[in-house]
Amino acid sequence: MPRPGRSAFQHIQVATSRLFGRMLILDDAIQTTERDEYAYHEMLAHLPLITHPAPQRALIIGGGDGGTLEESLKHPLQHVTMVEIDRDVVDVCRRFLPGISGEAFDDPRTHLLIEDGIAYVRASRERFDIILVDSTDPKGPGLALFSPEFYAACAARLTDDGLLVAQSGSLLYQRDLTEMVRRHLGTAFPVVGTYWTPVPAYPGVLWSFSYGSKRHDPRRVTDETITHRLAAIPTRFYGPPTHATALRLPPLP
Amino acid sequence: MPRPGRSAFQHIQVATSRLFGRMLILDDAIQTTERDEYAYHEMLAHLPLITHPAPQRALIIGGGDGGTLEESLKHPLQHVTMVEIDRDVVDVCRRFLPGISGEAFDDPRTHLLIEDGIAYVRASRERFDIILVDSTDPKGPGLALFSPEFYAACAARLTDDGLLVAQSGSLLYQRDLTEMVRRHLGTAFPVVGTYWTPVPAYPGVLWSFSYGSKRHDPRRVTDETITHRLAAIPTRFYGPPTHATALRLPPLP
């Protein structure tokens, strides 16, 4: 039976909070909680999947809890490859936080690979329309996931109109990180930017995602497109207003 | 010359933060800062002023820094009465945080009264289309501003299609307060609800406002109406997407 503890890569803990329910903690940082995971996962997955006019194939780097995978599979994709370095994270989440992934790991479109995402992107010859980088903080094994070299390798894995979104830290407490991600994405993509969502369990609450895109610009997606594409996709937070608000950064000190 | 210190009502401090710039602190609680005040004041003022189809007269209770007044005066109102209990707050803010009020206190439409807002609302025979309650936390002199009796007195001062918005605390750390405000508003108004905005300097970042309305529902305002009404009104954060997003509460633990 999978259980929390020290894996080959990190210290995995599952804690229960009166307010947030069960939460996954990696190396002492809260990664996701039962109560507020949906805003993070919906905004990470749906905003790029709606920005691309007809995505068929997606790649998720990290995201071991399965929340990004579950949201992605709500779209009529043919295929999702998920590359998670730490099998123990997947196993612990499936056992202790099963509501976050739902049936996503059993979906026939899901191809779960337990390996280093950086090595995978360098070696693979697959092409994807969307890449979602659902990483931990930039330290230890996750550090290279924020490098220009990694983003260039991702760009090579994307189709000619593909786009990538990466979590890029706390808008309030990791502003250097957010700016670095956007700058590094700019070395590999012509269209780059940052958007945000509230995630109460994260430091500073306001969380950032940054995108690098070869062609499609999230800022040009119309409300009508979002409404039409979401018709058969249930969401709790993502929609036309939150798409637009996410791209308008809040006041920052 | 006005200066920070102990007024007749509270301890007034002005501090400078490297991140937030100058900030007003009342009884040890941050009230507003130069860098992030605009989201709070825009969302407090514009959402109800746009929800009402043609507001002419507004009443502001509290709001001594003048930010809510300044945003309100961007609308083609005939008259704004502002009732602030503590003249020292107004004077200190005009001297040390002049950018928050701009020219608002000198606008000929502004009628500033230094008196108790509760007594004013009880005694006045004026009628207003909009009431904005820009109060401190519910303690000391501000406590009665959250009572059903005060909201009933406000309802009596509103025109037949008037509405009131009150700041109602931190979505994360003052949930009992937010729920109490909405419940108390429900005793005086048929249409009630809560909306939010990010305010980085406030505890928990996600701040709530609650509305009580006799007729007009902020949830029924269309993007077209907002765009049309805002054509001549410069805003940095409020607009069609933030109006709609504000009314869709984020994940709460």
Automatic annotation (TrEMBL), chains A, B:
Spermidine binds at residues 41, 65, 134-137. Pathway: Amine and polyamine biosynthesis; spermidine biosynthesis; spermidine from putrescine: step 1/1. One of its GO terms (biological process) is spermidine biosynthetic process. Residues 1-214 form the PABS domain. GO terms for cellular component: cytosol. It catalyses: S-adenosyl 3-(methylsulfanyl)propylamine + putrescine = S-methyl-5'-thioadenosine + spermidine + H(+). The active site is at residue 134. Its EC number is 2.5.1.16. GO terms for molecular function: spermidine synthase activity. Keywords: Polyamine biosynthesis, Spermidine biosynthesis, Transferase. Signal peptide: none annotated. Pfam families: Spermine_synt_N, Spermine_synth. S-methyl-5'-thioadenosine binds at residues 10, 84, 116-117, 141. SUPFAM superfamilies: S-adenosyl-L-methionine-dependent methyltransferases. Catalyzes the irreversible transfer of a propylamine group from the amino donor S-adenosylmethioninamine (decarboxy-AdoMet) to putrescine (1,4-diaminobutane) to yield spermidine. Homodimer or homotetramer. Belongs to the spermidine/spermine synthase family. This is Polyamine aminopropyltransferase. It comes from Candidatus Segetimicrobium genomatis.
